Prior knowledge:
Blueprint: E1 7-13, H1 19-26, E2 34-37, H2 54-57, E3 67-68, E4 81-82, H3 104-112, H4 120-130, E5 131-133, E6 147-149, H5 156-167, E7 183-186, E8 191-192, E9 195-196, H6 199-203, E10 211-214, E11 218-225, E12 228-236, E13 239-251, H7 254-264, E14 267-268, H8 270-275, E15 282-283, E16 289-291, E17 295-303, H9 315-328, E18 340-344, E19 355-360, E20 376-383, E21 390-393, E22 404-406, H10 413-430, H11 433-436, E23 439-444, H12 452-462, E24 464-465, E25 495-497, H13 512-527, H14 543-548
Parallel strand pairs: 1-2, 1-13, 2-10, 5-6, 13-25, 14-15
Antiparallel strand pairs: 3-4, 7-18, 8-9, 11-12, 12-13, 16-21, 17-20, 17-23, 17-24, 18-19, 19-20, 21-22
Helix pairs in contact: 1-13, 4-13, 10-12
Amino acid sequence: MSKSIPTFDFVVVGSGSAGAIVAARLAEDRSVRVLLLEAGPKDKSLLFRIPAAMRHAYNAPKYNWSFETEPEPYLNDRRLAQPRGRVLGGSSSINGQLYLRGHPLDYEGWAQAGARGWSYSEVLPYFKRLETRIDGRSEYRGTQGPVGVTTVRPDPLAKAFLEAGRQAGYRSTDDVNGFQQDGFGLFPKNVARGQRSSTAQCYLRTPPKNLHIQANSTVSRILFEGKRACGVQFRRGSETRTVRAGREIVISAGAFNSPVLLMRSGIGPAWHLRDFGIEVIRDAPDVGENLMDHPLTAVQAMCREPVTLFRHLDPFSRAQGIAEWLIARKGVLANNHFDTVAFIRTKAGVRIPNLQIALFAIAVAEGSADFVRQHAFQLQFSIQRPLSRGYVRLGGGHVEAVPRIRFNMLGHPRDIGELKAGFVLSRELLRQPALSRYAGTELFPGDDVASDDELESWLRATCHSSYHPCGTCRMGEDDLAVVDSECRVRGVERLRVVDASIMPQIPSANLNCPTMMIGEKASDHITGMDPLPPLDLAYFTDPNWEQSQR
């Protein structure tokens, strides 16, 4: 490489939930130069500040990769939409702002799967470091981090959901991110003072002079000298540019683009790379494999009382909501409107909750992003530890090629069984006295879906993605793991992957918060800092399950 090529100490590819954090933390050392490359534009639009505007943000093609899967063989060959952020802040700038850490035993599972140093006690300090909880203190919560997190006081419908859980015999919890995930409680959200807490807003708002942010720059490949990553080639407009990395390159492009970038650069299954004439730097068969997501669907019911968000959709209410937000950052637009959530088990004998149910105080028309034009609400439910696995593969060897994505969703029989149970339990919640006061006619799927066969047919026809892809650059210590426990790509030098793609198992959570934690923890690995001391805090496990194991 010519010496005239610009050189930075670190080059970070992708400014999303992890990449923005990595870049910002690396740049805290003012003696190093950091380049952050983002394929999309900067987050200048108000869409990225207003919590209730999430539907508009992730439906705007300018800010969205707008991926979709191949025909899913276990979902009637339907293609599933996969919105991913293509803007500063990545998906943290367009997602639903649902802030969940996952169950402590998720991270014990990571450590047992070969991710040394990623047990619950070892990741908890990083969860705390990234956040400031605005709604109260506890030893489980962070108080000085960049990301503002809060819950809101439940409205009548949300209160009815919480009460229905108690009536159905489930536990209550005062913090699903604290001692006890199990049960019904308030839904934390990365929203603070009426605004979205994206990583762009929280980490990159006032970058130091040694952090150079280059938007609208799509990386085509990582450059190597032998087995050592030495630079990055990217396109900006019609220009192809190259930069050199003196110390390391960090890929934080997400569960789809990170494995694709590795493969375009010569790291991946040799048989697959050769199909596109790509020189093999390292034969890594698991790059792009192990793709996971939480299968999701919803039960919708008419609402007997005018307490849903539908009352805010008329022109006057919309104008009032905009004015309240612009003037005081308050009102209906200052909330994402997922205020309550439950984590329960689909049957006895399950160690930790495997089902998430969330109340959304309006119904979304099936197959669209439009709201049902009447007072209605829905219970969204998803299974938390699916066994189905898919893949991401190249659609071509050039940067414009659309990746091939397949989840094989509901391919494993246990997954369809758990989702069926989730449907039955959600219907039972609607029949509890607290919710039956509000729940009228079931709109979706309706009373026609009753038998086991009808239920399975409905789920395969309507189940969709939670937009939680992960696992495609799996972390571990075995020979097939893509990265090691310090996020270094195995078999090459000076290259790491830091994002949701490294998760060895999918956590029981929406993935934004765990991915931010990965960015915080990995930044210490990259700089060579000692990890934060473990926090050995207790966590709740079901006494009935513990007793059954004795």
